[in-house]
Design goal:
about 100 residues; Chorismate Mutase Domain, subunit A; 3 helices; about 0% strand
Amino acid sequence: MDERVKPADCRTMAEVRRGVDRLDEEIVARLGERFRYMEAAARIKPDRGAVRDEDRKAEVIANARRLASRHGVPDAAVHELYERLVEASIAYEFERYDATR
């Protein structure tokens, strides 16, 4: 039986925690998928210098901030999270690039 409750309908901390735990599982699964795309990028890019792309980094962060605004998520939090996510993605892509060459 699915015991998930929408945030607005939560009446207990147990309901809140179940909802957060469910979302964390989904978020981590999506992060795994995102990092698999970084593996693909490392495989496809012709040279190591192409791994870091500051224009693309800025584009990804700007896109995330636009989505944050659309979904009522604090802009500063999304900016900080995506700055860290993109840097971690770049570091991972460098690791994968180096491991395959």
